[in-house]
Amino acid sequence: MATVTPQKITIEPVTRIEGHAKITIRLNEAGKVERAYLHINEFRGFEKFCEGRMAFEMPVITPRICGICPVSHHLAAAKACDDLYGCPPPRPAQLLRELMHMGQVIQSHGMHFFELAGPDLLLGFDADPATRNVVGLIQANPNLALRAVRLRKFGQEIIHILGGRRVHPVFAVPGGVNKALTRSERDQILAGLDDAIETIQLGLKIFKDWAEANQEDINRFAVFSTGYFGMVKPGNTLELYDGQLRLIDANGQELEYFDGRDYLNYIAEHVEPWSYLKFPYYKKMGWPAGVYRVGPLGRLNVADRIATPLADAALKEFKALNNGKPVEQTLYYHYARLIEALYAAENVRALLDDPDILSTDILNTRQEIRGEGVGVIEAPRGTLFHHYWAKPNGQLERVNLIVATGHNNWAMSEAVDSVAKTYITGPEIREGLLNRVEAAVRAYDPCLSCSTHAVGQMPMVIEILDAQGQVQQTLTRLHE
Amino acid sequence: MSESYACSDLPLPSLDTWGKEVFSSSPHLLILGIGNPDRQDDGLAWHLVNRLATDWGYSKGLDFGETLPVNERLTLRTELQLTPEMAEDLAAYTHVCFIDAHTGALPNEICWQTLQAGFQPSPLSHHLTPQSCLALAEALFGHAPSGILLSVRGYEFGFSRQLSPRTQALLDTAVHLLLQWLSPLTHHR
């Protein structure tokens, strides 16, 4: 709903009880946008909730933060427990965890491109809002829509096969996993792989065609300089499950390369009075100079290569966009997301072809509790940290989580500000302009604590006032 | 598009006449509870579906994503939230009764509304509404079941598996009402 005060526009989809966001756009006397903010009212009570629990419960408890990316929390928690209990998993277990993670990346990136961003890109920002949605997309291109649904289902099926369920799997445990992969399960996954890769390649083609036709929009839509942050393997190879962390500056120069366990030496969090979610930044550069971006754009900017051939070729094209320097355009998050999805699908084949994938050596039962453990993983939206401190019996005394959406907090707000200033230039606000402001946030695919969703959502309204505080125009998004 | 929040007082609509495909032919009703039981009253539907299952002799209970066919006419399921791929599952039913908590935006503590398939945007989140899910089923698979949403007021949404006392009391009422409503489908299990 909208809250209106003189010279202020508030876009507030009152979604959940916790974890909703709103956008405020402040106008000046001349009717121009002075500053726009994204406020995230995310409640971080989950860390407190976990204190006193046994560490080994965390892979089961923490996925319940979210129904969209539970696998990321599941695996980050398991990795933190491996570290805390001193029980590194055997190689087959690492492969199986990575396989599940690839399923998560495929389903999450697939859903975002085809179902959330797709309507904006394929039907146009200015298309009638009644049809600019996934149903409109289905009507415009039913074959593409069915492929998109199959792609997400393919990713979910990998999770289901390994974890026994699509949401909140019980699979990774400290020291490994609790279920091996059978030959028939491997073949079942392989059977859907070619179709998944074709669909992602189709998505890439769609995006590239769109980008060619919309270059002007891309180059004026939330383009700004930041650092970039993500996980890599040796040779700065893109990595999503386990590797070192790399931070580069806006020119592509490496600032840091470090083990995830040491993140507190490099990352600090800033607090602003207008958002519940903290703003992580690179400690040595200070706030706000040290802001950086994570997620698909951040990861492709810190990576020099990808280990699979199709995605590596796509990365080369991506790198050429800015002559090898970091790509800054927010809308290229969508492009990067598809390249990562392609990598994830190709990596599924690489993992399934590995002779160790069918091994039953999946659990390290030896434990040497260290009292502290850090688990880091590249969730679809960006780098996810789980950090636990425990008593000698494994009972948690303290928990720290830094979630992907947090890392991008500054960037999302900056994107909203940039887009509002670029596109809202007077009192007449068209639907398409409002949608561009939303799209600036959507590009980052934030996850705003979707784990509660009781009925009670309100219409989203934007109202614009003139300098005297009079309502000039009202736009409403009907919702329930 | 969906009806607005014009909830009616209970009782729920007659099973003999509700929906495009009335229950006199070969109906298949899905009771789909949505919500996170780890977030207190948000998990109302999970508690409710499990109470129904228990009442019908299924003591094991349902976790997220689990489906329990009670008989050839009635199926129970709970989900943390709706997702696009559920559209395919929904298209296999003639009727779906969504159950969810509400936060006070609806006029009554317990109320229901019939749903029309129609996409509703969630601009800044991944939230999918029942109406949107029905619209996806219709657009992708050519059939949207007749939908109804039963909503029960939630009051507290902390990190707990225990319902607030007020919602717990409403749960008891809602279970009783649903058992009565569904009795024609469960008589000859």
Q: Please, could you describe this protein's structure?
A:
The complex is a heterodimer of chains A (480) and B (189). Chain A is of the alpha+beta class. Chain A contains 14 helices and 17 strands. In chain A, α6 runs antiparallel to α7. The longest helix of chain A has 33 residues. Chain A is globular, with a radius of gyration of 22 Å. With 189 residues, chain B is an alpha/beta fold. Chain B has one domain: Rossmann fold (3-Layer(aba) Sandwich), CATH 3.40.50.1450. Helix content of chain B is 27%, strand content 21%. Chain B has a 6-stranded mixed beta sheet. The chains are: A alpha+beta (480), B alpha/beta (189). At the A-B interface, α1, α4, α5, α6 and α14 of A face β4 and α3 of B.
Concise overview:
The complex is a heterodimer of chains A (480) and B (189). With 480 residues, chain A is α+β, with helices and mostly antiparallel strands.
Question: What secondary-structure arrangement, pairings included, does this model have?
Answer:
The complex is a heterodimer of chains A (480) and B (189).
Chain A (H helix, E strand, L loop, with lengths): L7 E4 L8 E8 L5 E9 L4 H5 L7 H4 L8 H16 L5 H33 L10 H7 L1 H22 L8 E2 L2 E2 L5 H31 L1 H6 L6 E7 L3 E2 L5 E5 L5 E5 L8 E4 L8 E4 L9 E2 L1 H8 L6 H12 L11 H22 L18 E8 L2 E9 L5 E7 L1 H4 L1 H15 L7 H12 L17 E6 L5 E7 L3
Parallel strand pairs in A: 6-12
Antiparallel strand pairs in A: 1-2, 2-3, 4-5, 6-7, 6-8, 8-9, 10-11, 13-14, 14-15, 16-17
Helix pairs in contact in A: 4-5, 4-6, 4-7, 4-11, 5-6, 6-7, 7-11, 9-11, 10-11, 13-14
Chain B lengths: L28 E6 L9 H12 L11 E5 L2 E6 L6 H5 L4 E8 L7 E6 L14 H12 L4 E8 L11 H22 L3
Parallel strand pairs in B: 1-3, 1-4, 4-6
Antiparallel strand pairs in B: 2-3, 5-6
